[in-house]
Amino acid sequence: MLRMKNISKIYRTELVETHALSDVNFTVEEGEFIAVTGPSGSGKTTFLNITGLLESFEQGSYELDGEDVSTLGDKQLSRLRNEKIGFIFQGFNLISDLNLYDNIEVPLIFRGLSAQARKKRIEDSLELVGLGGRASHFPAQLSGGQQQRVAIARALAGQPRFLLADEPTGNLDTMMARQVMDLLEEINRQGTTLLMVTHDNELAQRAHRNIQILDGQLRDINKNELVELIS
Amino acid sequence: MSLKHILKIIVKHRNISLMILIQIAIAVTIVGNASFISYGTLKNWLIPSHLDEYEILNVYTKVFDNQVDKSALIQRDLSNLSALPEVTQVTYASNELVLATVSGSNQVYKTTDQEEAGIENAQFDITSEGVATLGLTITQGRDFYPNEFVFAGSDQSRFASVAMISEALAKSLFGEQSALGQTVYLQRARLPYRVVGVYANKMLGESAVYEQHWYHSTIVPQAHFGNTDINYLLRVKKGTAEAILKDVEDTLYQQGGRIVERVEFAARAKKRLWDGRSTFAFIMIGISVIAVAVTTFGIIGLVSFSVSIRKKDIGILRALGASQSTVLKTLLIENALLAMAGILLGSFAALWLNNYFVTHLRAQGLVEPWLAVLVAISVWLLSAVAVYIPVRKAAKIAPARVTKT
């Protein structure tokens, strides 16, 4: 469902050129759970941004759910982000001025869903993450773990083809992190493709497939290598 | 985002929203009033005077020597001025000059009832050539008979018994009824005068014009002397050069015991009449320009600030599927709502200020509905342009902002 060929990304300043990604080839099949790990500055965020259509790339081709994204304009890319991808960020990225209901509703409005359809999806998704009765609360009234569950609910309400999680437990304590990971695994079991970027190798172990990114290059690693990396 | 979300965000950011709203309201208040006053002044300029502005002269003199026989002086002046080759008619004018109210209250009343409010009126007290000097065209009734003229010292309490009034005054006082034979009561003393003639409208009185009774005037065949003012109205031949002003002055100086304060064409008096109001209008226009500039930069600044503290939220919207045009549209709607509220508030403030100017400063700037709508649309467009600059920048916020830590 996702195919990248020879993707490169270079950041240029007046003095230096930084090759954030070099010749990345990467494929994801439907229903997979993939963890991408790597140290700070390895290119994880750039990889995530390009995968999530948040940032453009210089070279190569990228096909998402059968659609070549390299030639698309802002409007089409925005539509694809809205319809195909569910985002879960380390910092939750909820809009603090809006309550939970509105936070989940906004991307559904971009989709053009009716008020009735939106209401059902919002209520169902909040129920799924265990926050059914708190639709009128504001993000600031929730704990970090609860906020991340709202972000997951927002992503799920859009019924995306795949979920992109960026350090989803990075700001959570162990207990909360476990709950959030359990929820993500459950969602993946139900058929949603999951790509998780993390620097936490222990979390990465829970994925079906592990990718390591180092100096802008990707490589598949097996569980044993991952265990070695942890130890 | 829906309107509901936009309104919620406006309420959440109420302080900055309120500042934008007030800024727009102030602009509407100032620009609105400047427009009303300027338009009122411009409209005044365009009202025809029907005067032969370069054929009528106002002459103002003052007698400082108490020993001078004023009656004899006036007779000599009339004779000397008539002798000037350019002068065709001359009249002593003991009350008003053309578009120059020299003495106080010139009200006209329909009755002697002390409760009746008078109507602002220009009252021309003249000698025998007065009607011709002013170039009046009698449309109803007759001219004065020679025996109806009264020429007396102001201490003698002798008054004429007849008067002529302008068509506009006749209509104000008597409506569709004929004014001929009716009695009008002039000045605070409410002295009675029978109307014997009605003449075509001319813009004659300064105070009357000031009160927007453009053509209200009365001609009375009486001329009183006694105080220090000895004034004349002259009619000169068409095309007479400005040199006549000096000739008149020189002629008057041949008689001692007096000073000649001013000799001017009626055109000059008319210009002076409008100048004061134009100055007020120009000041208001100046303030408007400043208000528009301050508002424009203020809106740019406030919206830039508002957007800068919401960069992350805008990035989130972009990541969740809002295109640049969606963000642009959302922020423009948000600010258009604020602009509309500001315009509404400013419109009420403008009406209040207009009422204050008209009642307290005698400004001419009555509210013109079409002008108010034009001002509202203009300020709305101005705010849209001012908002567009920072908002366009905001729409370009990259969705990748959400992954920045």
UniProtKB/TrEMBL annotation, chain A:
Q: Which InterPro entries match?
A: AAA+_ATPase (IPR003593), ABC_transporter-like_ATP-bd (IPR003439), ABC_transporter-like_CS (IPR017871), ABC_transpr_LolD-like (IPR015854), MacB-like_ATP-bd (IPR017911), P-loop_NTPase (IPR027417)
Among SUPFAM superfamilies, the record links this protein to: P-loop containing nucleoside triphosphate hydrolases (SSF52540)
Which keywords belong to this entry? Answer: ATP-binding, Nucleotide-binding, Transport
Per its UniProt record, what PROSITE patterns does this chain match?
ABC_TRANSPORTER_1, ABC_TRANSPORTER_2
Q: Name one GO molecular function term.
A: ATP hydrolysis activity
Which Gene3D superfamilies does this entry report, sorted A to Z? P-loop containing nucleotide triphosphate hydrolases
TM annotation in the entry: none
GO CC annotations on file: plasma membrane; transmembrane transporter complex
A Pfam family name for this chain? ABC_tran
The segment(s) forming the ABC transporter domain are: 2-229
Q: Which family does it belong to?
A: Belongs to the ABC transporter superfamily. Macrolide exporter (TC 3.A.1.122) family.
Q: What is this protein called?
A: ABC transporter ATP-binding protein
Q: What does the organism's lineage look like at the top?
A: Bacteria, Pseudomonadati, Pseudomonadota, Gammaproteobacteria, Alteromonadales
